[in-house]
Amino acid sequence: MKQPIFEPQSRVVGAAPLFRQLADEIGVVAIVNQHVRWDPAQCRVSPGERIRVLMLDLLAGHTPLYRIADRRTWTDVEVLIGQGRRPEDCTDDSLGRALDKLARAGPATVFSAWTLAASAHDGITLNTGHFDTTSRAVAGAYADTEDAAVHPAYGYSKDHRPDLKQLLMTLFVNREGVPLFGTVESGHRSANTLNAARIDRFITALGPEQRRQLISVADSALVTGPNLARLAADAWVPVGRLALRADGATYGASEHAGVIDGRSYRLVVSHSSARDSRAARAVDRALAAERAVLERTARTLAAEGFACEADARAALDR
Predict the structure, then answer these.
(1) Whose CA is closest to 106, among 45, 181, 54?
(2) For residue 267, with 0-12 CB atoms within 10 Å meaning exposed, 13-18 middle and 19 or more buried, which class applies?
(3) What are phi and psi of 309, to 5 degrees?
(4) Considering the domain boundaries, does residue 254 fall inside one?
(5) pLDDT at 164 over 80
(6) What is the pLDDT of residue 33?
């Protein structure tokens, strides 16, 4: 009797199995399922598993939501999702429902739980932190949703698109760049307000001893007006060039003791030569524009007739 020939099928998985292993070690699925509201009796695939599918896709492909199920047809679903799972478990409707559950639970809370679990798993310490914000312009029509927790709005655009509405994203990382928490905010919020919210989170999440040992790195949005004169003292210690490029900016550092709202702080300020050149170019542009205005005015006056010398001098003075 002739035996059937076994024809192996090729499956593309890339680096996704590694990402899944790391996600499983820090408990990504369990953390999501603990924070969202869902009924295990009504769900064949848990919200945490579906969120993990989205995470793996972002890290290993970035497929549009409506195409994720199609992509699963040419990869090894059981390796990436779990035994007994099928491509149809990853439709855009099912993934969208998982995202809705995550939104109601609070994405920032879940993200913080992930990062804390990852930090504990790998022994990552928090002794230096860096907080910053950025904006992301969005296209399309958005209804006015001022009552929503997060909504696109016009604001200070860091990607130079003030004509578009935007969302703000915040991220706090340790000195190695490991994310510790982050949020998505409405587009009109300011960095000063978000810095205040970040400090409130520190007070809630960290004990007094941890706060005393923490070095926080931030930009000028954290600095208040009364300290600017003190920080402007010309006492820079050369740090040198950090980039390998020959034309890279050089840096200096200056340490000060400052008082903000009656509390003493150790303040370390960094200075970049790139800012000097940008400021010089801005001054040059302003001077050129002013000169052009004056020259046009002078040409207009030269062509104008005056009844007497006194009238001409008065016009020139103006």
Answers:
(1) 181
(2) middle
(3) -65, -35
(4) no
(5) yes
(6) 93
Q: Cα separation of 187 and 153, whole Å?
A: 5
Tell me what pLDDT residue 230 has.
45
Domain final residue, candidates 219, 245, 274: 219
The reported pTM is 0.56
Position 42 in a domain: yes
Residue with tokens 């930090």: 119
- The whole-angstrom separation of Cα 218 and Cα 267 is 11
What distance in Å separates the CA atoms of residue 71 and residue 260, rounded to the nearest whole number?
54
Q: Are strands 166-174 and 237-241 parallel, antiparallel or unpaired?
A: unpaired
DSSP 209: H
Q: 1 vs 135, which has greater pLDDT?
A: 135
**What is the phi/psi pair of residue 262, to 5°?**
80, 0
The Cα-based distances of 175 to 130, 307, 317 in angstroms read 7, 73, 58
Query: Which one of 181, 198, 219 terminates a domain?
Result: 219
When pLDDT is cut at 50, 70 and 90, the band that residue 5 belongs to is: low
Q: For the ranges 20-24, 65-69, 168-172, 296-300, which has the lowest average pLDDT?
A: 65-69
Domain count, the chain: 2
Q: Tell me which amino acid residue 21 is.
A: Q
Rounded to whole angstroms, how far apart are CA atoms 267 and 282?
Answer: 28
Query: Looking at this protein, which amino acid is placed at residue 308?
Result: C
Which residues lie across from 268 on neighbouring strands? 255
DSSP class of residue 64 equals -
Q: 164 burial class (0-12, 13-18, 19+ CB within 10 angstroms)?
A: middle
